[in-house]
Amino acid sequence: MSVKPIPDGYHTVTPYLYVHDTAAAIDFYVKAFGATEVMRMPGPGGSVVHAEIQIGTSRVMMADENPEWGNKSPRTLGGTSAGYCLYVEDADAVFARAVAAGATVKRPMADQFYGDRSGTVTDPFGQMWTIATHTEDLSPEEMQARMDAMMKGQPG
């Protein structure tokens, strides 16, 4: 039996989140996004050195921040330069559930020029999530035309 180079349950790219409190983050993701916990490896002092959750078809890895190893959470950094897009069947329902679980609205739910209905929240741990449902298939040219029309009259 040979070992698979990409293990079952994983995709080619798997997000790895560093958070201030992984245990609390897992609880939030379960409530907000319907995540299931796959595994958790406890570390010293009640920390979590590695955990994995499943959201829909995607695995997400996470661990408590450890600045000595260069792993800093958005709380320590004062923000994040990354965000995550979560495609779901009912974006409005998941968005409302995330807000009810403690997320902050960054961009309200709306129909987007590129064919999605989406909105963005910041979770209590500083991670940004765009929650979306794809509503129409558009060519790149159609998206560009819609964006150009939307941008007319906007300050540049």
UniProtKB/TrEMBL annotation:
Residues 9-134 form the VOC domain. PROSITE patterns: VOC. Pfam families: Glyoxalase. Gene3D superfamilies: 3.30.720.110, 3.30.720.120. This is Glyoxalase family protein. It comes from Fimbriiglobus ruber.
